[in-house]
Amino acid sequence: MAISNQTQEAERFGAMLRRSAELKTALAAETAQVLAIVDACEAAMRAGRKLIFCGNGGSAADAQHLATEWVIRLRGSQPRASWPAITLALDTSAVTAAVNDFGVDEMFARPLRGLGVAGDVLFGITTSGRSANVLGALKAAREMGIVTIGLLGGDGGPALALCDQAVVVPDHDTARVQECHITLGHAILTLLEDRLVG
After folding, report:
1. Which of 13, 28, 84, 98 has CB 3.0 to 4.6 Å from 110, enough for a Cys bridge?
2. pLDDT tens per residue across span 90-111
3. Cβ(159)–Cβ(129) under 8 Å?
């Protein structure tokens, strides 16, 4: 590889990490929004309800990641019981049947109607704020009395109006937004865990 190409790649690499750091630093000012999300989750957990997560692609992986850390363990240094959380993208048979029988808008909404109850908390994770299946889930959650939380990107898209609380990563680069979403998810769950075990 030519030296000039290596130099360009090194510059691009540095720019990617700096942008990720800049976005996360900017999100540190969203304290009120984050604490409102933690409040909603705490109220749900103390009432015997659960956390529900949904998203597409990398956001589906984030949804599964966060649900797993809530059910199994977030931090090895913090012993606690298992707590209830699910991801709506985990069951491929249910997801594909919902899309086939009812359409993409019902991909998450249909299982949510069977698994969710009033007082649960739904996290809709979408880097664009425009994912049809996440929008469908947020709408269904509103109808059911489920608290709606958005981890969004860009300008929040139509998802923003469907969320009781949301944090919007102000960028359109999917990778950078997803990096912020998983950081936000970890921070929210860490604060929530400290409240519940403290």
Report:
1. 98
2. 889 999 999 999 999 999 999 9
3. yes
pLDDT tens per residue across span 9-56: 999 999 999 999 999 999 999 999 999 999 999 999 999 999 999 999
Please state, as a whole number, how many other Cβ atoms lie within 10 Å of the Cβ of residue 106: 19
Q: Cβ of 91: how many Cβ atoms within 10 Å?
A: 14
How far apart, in Å, are the Cα atoms of 147 and each of 40, 71, 101, 120, 166?
7, 19, 27, 6, 11
Structural element, H or E, at residue 54: strand 51-55
CB 130 within 8 A of CB 159: yes
Is this structure's pTM higher than 0.85? yes
CA distance 174 to 69: 23
C-alpha of 113 from chain center:
19
CB 148 within 8 A of CB 141: yes
Q: H helices then E strands: how many in the chain? A: 7, 5
3-state secondary structure 75-114: CCCCCCCCCCEEECCCCHHHHHHHHHHHCHHHCCHHHHHH
Angle of CA points 116, 63, 74, to nearest 5°: 100
